[in-house]
Structures are given as C-alpha cells and as structure tokens.
C-alpha cells in the first residue's frame, strides 16, 4: 500500500486494527526521522554560522571549542523545550477533552 492511498480516510477505515497500528507506527517513525534531520540541519546551520568566521581547510582550536559549546547549548535548549512541551501536553490531556478548543498554553 502506498502513502497516497493511506491518506484516504476510507482506506484507513477499512484496515484491520493491526494494519492501522502498523500505519501509525510507520508514520511515527517517519516523523521522528524528519524531526532528527531538521534538528541536525538547524544545529549545523546555526553553529557553523556562529563559529566559523574564517573558513579554511581545517578548523582552529577555537572553532572546534565554539562548535562544541554551541552544539551543547543547542541540544540542552532543544531538550528543555521538548520536555516542557511534553509535560504541558500531558497536563492538558489529563484535564480531559474540552470540545471546541485545543490545548491552551500560558
């Protein structure tokens, strides 16, 4: 079954629960891969722009140190934001469904 046919709601309704679980698992894996690729691209772009001010054939010690610190800060920040978002979503869903409105963040 190709991805285009899976996007059809009628096709999804006709799948067995096991097939639906497989589709969901596949989509989750694809989303995780896309998220990781985006994270690596953002990390590379931001830290390279910040740390490599004079491109050459090799990195200086200060370039390497800057890149390491930049990557560490970027990952720490990304993890903090991700964990905070996950906690807030769990809190919102624990409150129960509120019809007509999505989660509210303050």
Automatic annotation (TrEMBL):
Residues 27-87 form the Tim10-like domain. SUPFAM superfamilies: Tim10-like. It is a peripheral membrane protein. GO terms for molecular function: metal ion binding. GO terms for cellular component: mitochondrial inner membrane; mitochondrial intermembrane space chaperone complex. InterPro entries: Tim10-like, Tim10-like_dom_sf. It is found in: Mitochondrion inner membrane. GO terms for biological process: protein insertion into mitochondrial inner membrane; protein transport. The keyword Nuclease does not apply. Keywords: Chaperone, Disulfide bond, Membrane, Metal-binding, Mitochondrion, Mitochondrion inner membrane, Protein transport, Translocation, Transport, Zinc. It comes from the Eukaryota. Its main location: mitochondrion. The keyword rRNA-binding does not apply. It holds the Pfam family zf-Tim10_DDP. Mitochondrial intermembrane chaperone that participates in the import and insertion of some multi-pass transmembrane proteins into the mitochondrial inner membrane. Also required for the transfer of beta-barrel precursors from the TOM complex to the sorting and assembly machinery (SAM complex) of the outer membrane. Acts as a chaperone-like protein that protects the hydrophobic precursors from aggregation and guide them through the mitochondrial intermembrane space. Belongs to the small Tim family. Heterohexamer. The twin CX3C motif contains 4 conserved Cys residues that form 2 disulfide bonds in the mitochondrial intermembrane space. This is Mitochondrial import inner membrane translocase subunit. It comes from Steinernema hermaphroditum.
């Amino acid at each position: 079954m190709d991805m285009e046919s899976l996007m059809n709601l009628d096709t999804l309704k006709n799948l067995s629960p096991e097939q639906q679980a497989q589709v969901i698992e596949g989509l989750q894996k694809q989303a995780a891969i896309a998220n990781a690729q985006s994270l690596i691209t953002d990390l590379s772009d931001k830290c390279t722009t910040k740390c490599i001010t004079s491109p050459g054939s090799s990195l200086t010690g200060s370039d390497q140190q800057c890149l390491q610190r930049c990557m560490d800060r970027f990952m720490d920040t990304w993890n903090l934001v991700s964990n905070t978002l996950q906690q807030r979503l769990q809190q919102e869903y624990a409150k129960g469904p509120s019809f007509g409105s999505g989660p509210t963040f303050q």
